[in-house]
Amino acid sequence: MNDTPTAARPETAGVVNPPVVILIEPQLGENIGKAARAMLNCGLVEMRLVRPRDGWPNEKAVANASGADIVIENTRIFEREEDALADLNRIYVTTARTRDAVKPVFTPRGLGPEMRANIGHGEKIGVIFGPERTGVRNEHIAMADAVVTVPLNPGFTSLNLAQAVLLIGYEWWQAGVDVPDYQMMLNDSFPATRDEIERMFVHLEDELDESGFFRVAEKRPAMMRNIRNIFNRVGMTHQEVQTIRGMVAAMRGAKHKPKSDD
């Protein structure tokens, strides 16, 4: 067993002890590295390996971790599943097949809040992932308190190791952050006021009148409503309103500019 000292932990969405990821008999160093990368994306920093096929340390794991060094450096190695799980209070096992076990079954989305609630009560949590080729065995399911199954296309539920880790980690992370499902990127600008937008419309309407754009008087109100709808759908910023007004003013100035005698 490798008891590497724990380094300083990165941001973990306000949680002191995020879930431990336990990989049973991982086969390829590349897959371990990619799983480590997925973990750190989601604030998970503690990985345990049980009987990695190609041994440890593994250069291919380091290369494929793409900078998730804290996960690689703190990885612990075990020969027995029981030792890897010994200090955990609650264990979840990921599998596409629940077999004959009678256990609670979570989706990743349901598991995120569940893990956070249990950690909030002081429990140490672990999630088991099986070998790439076979997945977990019945004895691994028997060790767990609950099963995690990803609801995917019933005709093809196969995931690679890093995908499975990312799905669990993503829902864990999302359960602890408050990010709106939609937001407008305004950078250094700010939304235009209704008065600014109305002044822009008046400016634009005046120029369209003068240019003869509204050739049929009866259609003018409907055409202007359509123009307003186009701009109102955009959610304009103060700077965008100023740009449109500058464009209109420039076109008017160009139209009235004296022509050259050349």
TrEMBL record:
Short name of one Pfam family: SpoU_methylase
Annotated keywords: Methyltransferase, S-adenosyl-L-methionine, Transferase
Keyword Transcription regulation: no
Keyword Cell membrane: no
One GO cellular component term noted in the UniProt record for this chain: cytosol
GO biological process terms held by the UniProt record: tRNA nucleoside ribose methylation
Record-level Gene Ontology MF annotations: RNA binding; RNA methyltransferase activity
Annotated tRNA/rRNA methyltransferase SpoU type domain residues: 20-170
Origin: domain of life: Bacteria
Gene3D superfamilies (UniProt xref): 1.10.8.590, 3.40.1280.10
Family of this protein: Belongs to the class IV-like SAM-binding methyltransferase superfamily. RNA methyltransferase TrmH family.
Record-given protein name: rRNA methyltransferase
